């Protein structure tokens, strides 16, 4: 059974991501953890000193509102999808999102976080997009970011970009394999090289990846001397991609490229679902 966290602030954007998750794993047994975190803006030192019992009343009200909305969301999902393979747990927490995610991921051995994000068309959207990027960078769990306004489409074509500098294992590919098997997806593995031939380690890693993806519909491509965002955009001109995947690799020379440039650019200008897998190393 897959264990998946669905963070929500009850916005249309967040609800869209929750709905996407129900469709993506429609035939997979899942426990979905509906998570709402809240930190009221007025919660600060001065109010604690000067407001007497007022602050506690405010927090109680916010907490009850959070729990009520989570219960309403759960009931809506049960009525709309009526899926016996899916069960729901509710988590309402006075905490920062990334802190709570870290705790819940460890406590319940979570497989995946699915959350909404927005593009960079305005200040509010940039902040929300940056919040998603912060989650991607910090949590030790795969994160699937769903762009604002992207309604579910079967992920028939998945683009997996890699540099072959990872000693691949099943833990890196479990979610990709689950999605691919459920939707009979074609995986397009795209290697963006620096213009040189693969070294012995990269050749070994590529062979390992090929073996791990055996039995799936997988095709390898190589593009030389291109920035990763450009290579992705060029690929999409010939093949409509429904989902983009990367492994967040902290220990290669591409660290800055992946964490600071590529993920930030894609995350803030996201047009398709974006799956980021931590390297776990």
Q: Strand order of the main beta sheet, please?
A: 3-2-1-4-5-10-9-6-7-8
* Helix and strand run: EHEHHEHEHEEHEHEHEHE
Percent in strands: 15-25%
What CATH architecture of the largest domain would you give? 3-Layer(aba) Sandwich
Total domains: 2
Annotation, overall tally of beta strands: 10
Give the overall shape.
elongated
**Mean model confidence by pLDDT:** 83
Helical proportion?
Answer: 40-55%
What oligomeric state do the depicted chains represent?
single chain
What class would the helix/strand composition place it in? alpha/beta
CATH structural class of the largest domain? Alpha Beta
CATH topology of the largest domain: Rossmann fold
- Can you say what the CATH homologous superfamily of the largest domain is? HUPs
What is the rounded Rg?
A: 20 Å
The biggest beta sheet is recorded as: 10 strands, mixed
Describe the fold and architecture.
The protein is an alpha/beta fold. The chain has two domains: 146 residues, 3-Layer(aba) Sandwich (Rossmann fold); 119 residues, HUPs (Rossmann fold). Helices cover 45% and strands 23% of the residues. It has nine helices and ten strands. The protein has a ten-stranded mixed sheet, sandwiched between helices. Strand 4, helix 5 and strand 5 form a beta-alpha-beta unit. The longest helix is centred in the first third of the chain and has 28 residues. About 6% of the residues have low confidence.
In brief:
The chain has helices spanning 12-24, 45-50, 54-81, 97-108, 123-138, 170-183, 200-212, 228-238, 255-268; strands spanning 2-7, 30-37, 86-93, 112-117, 143-147, 157-162, 186-193, 217-224, 243-248, 274-278. It is an alpha/beta fold and 281 residues long. The protein has a 10-stranded mixed beta sheet, sandwiched between helices.
